Amino acid sequence: MIASKKHVLTLLGLVLTVAAANVFAYTGQKLAAEAKISIEQARATALKAYPGKITDEELERENGGSGLRYSFDIRQGKVTQEVGVDGVTGKLLENAPEGPNPD
Q1: Per-residue pLDDT tens for 52-94?
Q2: Do 37 and 90 form a contact (C-beta atoms < 8 A)?
Q3: According to a count of CB atoms within 10 Å of the terminal CB, is the N or C end of the chain lower?
Q4: Is residue 74 situated within a structural domain?
């Protein structure tokens, strides 16, 4: 019985570790070294522009601004807004309802 408790605790620890790692991962994280602002700063800017629940976030290369952009899908009620924040300057690049063909 003790061995099975040990296995359960080990498995639980592994599951929690993987879950915690996924909380901090986002699409485009490999570009983060090029960004001058952190994703936390970008999130704060995005949520100030459109309060709600972030349902998707990524760091990507895209035309406009510095070319490095954090994109957030933020849901408020039944509306999902796409908010873009420049990864170098931290300026708001986009704040518009998500189109019919989301990324």
Answers
A1: 999 999 999 998 899 999 999 999 999 999 999 999 999 999 9
A2: yes
A3: N
A4: yes
Q: Which long-range contacts (CB under 8 A, 24 or more apart) does 45-49 make?
A: 45/85, 45/90, 45/92, 46/70, 46/72, 46/74, 46/83, 46/85, 46/92, 47/74, 49/83, 49/92, 49/95
Residues whose CB falls within 8 Å of the CB of residue 86, separated by 6 or more in sequence, listed in order: 37, 65, 66, 68, 69, 70, 92, 93
Residue 68 lies in a domain: yes
The identity of residue 16, as a single letter, is L
7-12 own/partner pairs: CB under 8 Å, 24+ apart: none
Q: Indicate whether 16 belongs to any domain.
A: no
